[in-house]
Please model this.
Amino acid sequence: MSTKPQTVIETFRNPAPHTDYTIRITMPEFTCLCPKTGQPDFATLKLEYVPDQLCIELKALKLYIWSFRDRGCFHEAVTNEILEYLAGATAPRFMRLTAEFLVRGGIYTTVVAQKTQPGWSPPADVRLP
Model:
């Protein structure tokens, strides 16, 4: 069992590739460093995706997210970097990453980035009485 950060994400075959379903993952312990001051930034990352052929292995995701702990990153840059890497590794039908950073200097920052596979549309919502 690895106890060190890793920059490689593992995937596994989608067990239901014929179905549009959403995977939601919340990561409340994300940390990186402010590139200006070197002080830690804390965020909750919320990943939502509709897999196509591959899914993200959760332990690998944890170790990947951990790899940012000692890196200086602007909020906007790190959110888009993570989304690009995860979407590149899994080629999902849809993926959205929301990064909710805790207060710094009296300001909260939320960055939302998303990717959609060309030609894919979400199924219509079903409203039940």
